[in-house]
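Thread: "does anyone have the structure for this chain?"

Original post by V.I.:
We have the sequence but no experimental structure in hand. Need at least a predicted one for the grant figures.
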Amino acid sequence: MSVEIRQVHPIFVGEVSGIDVRKPLSPQEVAAIEAGMDRYAVLIFHDQDITDEQQLTFTKNFGPLQDGANTTVRSKELRLDPAFADVSNLDKDNRMLPRDDRRRISSLGNRLWHSDASFRPVPARYSLLSGRVVPPTGGNTEFADMRAAYDALDKATKAEIEDLVCGHSLIYSRAQLGFTEYTTEELATMEPAMQRLVRRHPVTGRKSLFLSAHIGTIAGWPQPEALAFIRDLTEHATQPAFVYSHKWRAGDLVIWDNRQTMHRVRRFDDLSHVRDLRRTTTMSEGPTVTAQAA
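Reply from O.Q.:
Generated one for you, tokens below.
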């Protein structure tokens, strides 16, 4: 069966059939998925009942893995292999996290619009999120097309932002929610990474906005002005015409290109219902700012 992709949103997002991610992929299948990612930026695979090992094997078709342990709160008792980002509401014993748990509070930052690992010198390329257990209501993941958002800007704004460079850090995104209590060890991992505000896709050549809640500064700007400007751009980029909301089904695997999208999770009753989603991530081609290449 050949790979088929059906567009499910007016401007982006494709639903894939003809792929069983539990099985080894042929070079042609890998190429078809990557071409689909270049076009749609988000791909949905239904009915993929996979193990962690199968998810890792599938992910490695799309570049080097990015370490998944990227939360603000460090833990010596990980529930999953360190190659995964555990975006569940569970502790190492698979019990739901209590309301005042530091990891739960930090993870509320995932409800802000962001791009994965933008706070690292080499940010993420693809994120692959597997829905193992999903809540009965809520917990949708929303995606915003940063290519369409860039295209819709006026010429003056495009000229203004062309060469701007922003500082990204988990400190900035979590501070928006009042989370500021870190250990010395945690703070040492959170030095801001500098990223271009406008990116060009290496295959299609399309420009996009590189926005994220992790942005806290613009080089050469007073911080209050920078934050106000980023807020305006984010409001523009997440207007309904540019957004798709994914309602999870158990067994869904969703892949998105962090170079072309932002995303966020919507609120759900995480004190009463399990949401066990597991993310693997690949690295992009390199730093967006040349000075960070070293």
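V.I.: this helps a lot. The two ends are 45 Å apart (CA to CA).
O.Q.: and The chain has one domain: 4-292.
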